Structure formats: structure tokens, C-alpha cells
Amino acid sequence: MNASHSDTADILTSTQVLRPRPSGIKGWLMQTAISAAPIVFCLLRRFKPILKLGNTVITSRYDDVIEVFNTDEAFMVPYREKLDLVTKDQPFILGLPDGVEYRSALGAMRNVVVSSDLPDLVQQVEVRAEALVEAADGRLEVVADLVRPLAFEVLAGYFGVPEPEVGHLDVWATRLFEFVFMGSTSDTDLMQQVNVIAPAFRAHVAAEIARRKAQGLGRDDVMTRCLTRQAAGEPGYSDDEIRTNIMCMVIGGPPQWPMVVPQALEQLLRHPDALKAAVAAAQADDDDLLWQIVQEAIRFDPLAPGLPRIATRAYEIAQGERRACRVPKGANVIASFASAMMDERHVPDPSSFDAARAEDQYINFGHGLHECFGLHINRACLHLILKPLLKRPGLRRAPGPKGKLRKNGLFAESLSVRFT
Q: Are the CB atoms for 58 and 337 separated by under 8 Å?
């Protein structure tokens, strides 16, 4: 569906980061389904661990979810078609199966997104988070006034993507994130926006590449490193490859933080002892302990209930077990990692808040071949966004509905707090 000229201008310059939530019965059904998911998964784990509904198979136990994630040759990520619409058919690692093309593209990005960047990113997050909390003067909307602006300022800057002259990077990236990971090509409103935003985003990143080539590479960021390797004649760094990789990193990275960080804070507010421990860790500058607490909070409400895969061949999950299920080629498979992290067969006493859990009990950012590329950045930074807030005395919910986490589908929409 093509937008008119006026519609195009409205889409490109919109400040509405999240689309309006569905109204009426559709909105009610969506929110009810999301709210009921933990109960449904609990029943599935006990009575029907691998549920087959038509051409869809849902795995709910830890072992089966990990098996799906680890069996890449049988369960492929389904993002390629939508990513091709966003990138204009330039492959990105998230849509590729294992193989020479995938490993070459992954290696090219690992050359320029390196762990030695973490100290600088950590410092940026701490400084910016402190400034935003200080400016809030005791009243803070966590999603829109803390996490989202910080995420896009720090991460987009790290990748080398400035704000467009016309439009807003957080709106563009969030809309494309929604399309790739949650959307459907049958959603005409979403497709209208994607058909406007995607080419504008491509042109914006391409223009920045051209500008740096003409005027000098400038600061040390991921784009500069890509262009330096391109100038040295290394493969994997053509203009189109650089544009696609950096654009998709901005689409896949910054929109995550405004989802998981407010959701983690909501869980801390629901667990007073955990909140007390987080406050103590923040005040003692014990960042490792603070990460363990925040990671455990994310386990209770991760990015999504599950991640999709497509069966590339017939395969039997949990072969030899009573729950075994033969998955036909072409089936849609949901690896319910949120359910897996509540599976008492692998996660002891999963309903209790325990920040001392073993690392293999967490699948907050996927697992296996397509585990979140920025996992090391999340591990270094997410808890530090909340650190200055946790240091403020009297941290509590705002009065009334504003003080409870409000969601728009799978996106955290708002959560307001007060502090002294």
C-alpha cells in the first residue's frame, strides 16, 4: 500500500513511537492473551509440553526450547522476507541460516563491534542516566524520559547513525522493529508506514556513509571502522553491506532497552526484597550484583513469550520421550523461552526471585546461532540505566494507574515513579 505525499510526510515526521493500541474487542483479546500467557504456559509444561495446533508447534519446557534453538539445520529463523523488505534485498545475519554467507557477515560485524568498547559505553550510560534522573526532580516516566532517549543516544551514536534532519530515529527504528519481529505483511497500516520509513532510513544511513567518505571519517564508531576496513580492501564492507548492517543494528538494538528495562523495574517493584537488594547493590556500586538482580527481574518478563522458527525439514522434538512430537516440514515452531525459564525441571523454584541462579537458567536474549548479537552490550549496560534511580531515596510507584507498567502489545508503554 503506497502512502500519499501528505501521508508520507506525516509518517516520516511522526513523534508517536508506538502505534495506538488496538481498541475494542481486538485490543481486549490481545492484552488478555498476553496477561494469560504465564498461566497457559504453566498448564502446557505440565499437560502438553509440545502443543501442535494445525501447522503451529509450541514448545514450553526448557529442554525442548533449547533443542529447537540448537537445531539450526531443522529450525530456521523466519525473518528473511521481512528483512529483505526493510533492506531492499541486502542480506543481514538475522535472516540467514548457518553457512559461509552467515559466518562471513557475522565475522565482519564482530571485527567492528568489539568488547573493548564496553568501558566507554558503560561510562556513557552511567553519565546519561544520572543526568536524566537528576533532571526529573523526583518524578520520572521511565520509558519515555529515561530508557528510550538514553538507548537511542548511546547505541545509535555508537553505531554511527545521527538523527535524521526530518523525522525521528526512535520512531523509525521502533516501527521497523515491530514489523520484523511482531508484524505481518497483512497489516495494511503497518505496511504503509514500513514502505515509507524503510527507504527513508536506508537513504539516511547511505547519506551518512557518503558524507563521511567526502568529509572525513570523524569519530571512532562502528561506521568509521567499517569504512576504514572498506578502504583497506577487506571483503564484507561494501556500501550496501555497511548500510544494511548498521541500519539493522539500530533497528534491533535500541528498541529492546525501553522494553526490558521498565519491565525489570516493574518486577523489582513487585518484589520488595529484591528492590531492597537492588538499592543496596546500587548504593555500594556493586555492579555485578546489580546485574544479577536485574537479570533475574527480566526473567519474569522478558522481551517476548517466545521466538519463532520455521521447520526446514521433518523433525521429531524430544525423540524417545513420551511428549515427543514430529514436526512436519514448513511448520511454524514457537520456542517459548519465557516458559522455559519458568520450568521447574531446570530452574529450581522458578516462581521465587533468586539473583544467585546459574547462568544457564537464563535465556533472556535468545540462544544458539541467533542469540542477540548485542548480548555483551546488554550485559554491561542494562542495569546501569536503573542504577542512579535506585540510588535515590524513597523510590516508589507514582500514585494511581501511572505507577503500574502499562503495555502496548509486547512493548512497555509507560511506568511512572517517584523518589525524594
A: no
